Amino acid sequence: MNTKELKKFFKEHLVPSKLYKVGGHHKNRVCLAKTENGWEVFFQDKKERIGVINFPDEASACDKMKEELRKMMEQLYGVTWAPAR
Q: How much is the pLDDT for 81?
C-alpha cells in the first residue's frame, strides 16, 4: 500500500480527515511523513511529535498508520473496519 491508496482507503471507510494527515504534519492528528531515511508515523501535538516510529519503506509506514487509525476509530466512535490478518 502506498500513500495514495491509504488516502483512498480512509475515504472509502469514512475515516474523518480531522484524525490524520498523510504527507506532512498537522496538530492533533496522526501523521505520516517522508523523511531523508524513510518514513515516520507519529502523533503531532501542537508543536511536539509524540510516539515517532520510523520505517524504511512506504508500505510499512502506511500499514502502521492504518492500524493506528483503526484503533482510534474504535476508541472514539465505537466503529471500525476488521483488522488485516
A: 77
